[in-house]
Specification:
By secondary structure, the protein is mainly β. The chain has three helices and twelve strands, in the order ββββββαββαβαβββ.
Length: about 220
């Protein structure tokens, strides 16, 4: 008998936050500094963490690209929690409507794109501007089909000449964007998604802890 997929283990698809983590160009570097340490005789261990709002695995808020738009504390958490589908789009670096058309994407779906980026640990290497990304036309394709959430396996959903238009197409349409996922250990198909951002008042983005559990084919 085939095992019940609902009993599958959770897969942590969050990039570990560590000192020197790869960040998008011109974004603040992530720094972790030990302030007190029990190994030095202090009564407790306490660290200071400095990072940008788009470090590691994170969500984008509409205000990230539109002045006066909603902040991360106003995001619909239902968009980040529930059934999700991982699509294998690892054939190309620029993912447009043509690469998405055969996947039968429908209204209300949470779509996570597993691209070429998942073949190597991008978060431990120098930033590569040639990362795989969603084009503006690809974003429009997903918006036109009523997608609720889009997640990607690199620091930005858009890239090259498609950025920032890819972001604007998605965010202006109310699509929630999750970036920096580690999908290297995830197979395409149906999953249960759990993803909660830090509640930063008016924030343009926020780190998240993201988990997936296989639920179907």
């Amino acid at each position: 008998m085939e095992p019940d997929k609902t009993d599958a283990a959770w897969i942590d698809v969050t990039v570990p936050l560590r000192d020197g983590l790869t960040v998008y160009p011109d974004n603040p570097q992530l720094r972790v500094r030990r302030i007190t340490d029990v190994e030095r005789g202090d009564p407790a261990t306490v660290s200071e963490i400095s990072l940008g709002s788009h470090s590691g695995t994170h969500v984008d808020a509409p205000v990230h690209f539109r002045a006066g738009a909603a902040g991360v504390d106003e995001l619909d958490l239902d968009a980040l929690n529930g059934p999700a589908r991982v699509l294998d789009v690892a054939a190309v670096r620029r993912i447009g409507a043509g690469q998405l058309a055969g996947h039968g994407v429908g209204p209300g779906e949470r779509i996570l794109l597993r691209t070429l980026n998942s073949r190597q640990p991008w978060h431990t290497r120098p930033f590569d501007p040639g990362y795989a990304h969603l084009t503006a036309a690809g974003a429009r394709h997903l918006v036109d089909r009523g997608v609720r959430t889009v997640g990607v396996d690199h620091l930005s959903v858009g890239g090259g000449d498609d950025n920032p238009q890819t972001h604007r197409v998605l965010l202006d349409a109310g699509v929630t964007v999750v970036e920096g996922l580690d999908l290297s250990a995830v197979e395409p198909g149906d999953h249960d998604l759990r993803c909660l951002p830090l509640r930063i008042a008016g924030g343009d983005g926020a780190p998240v802890r993201a988990l997936l559990r296989r639920t179907g084919p």
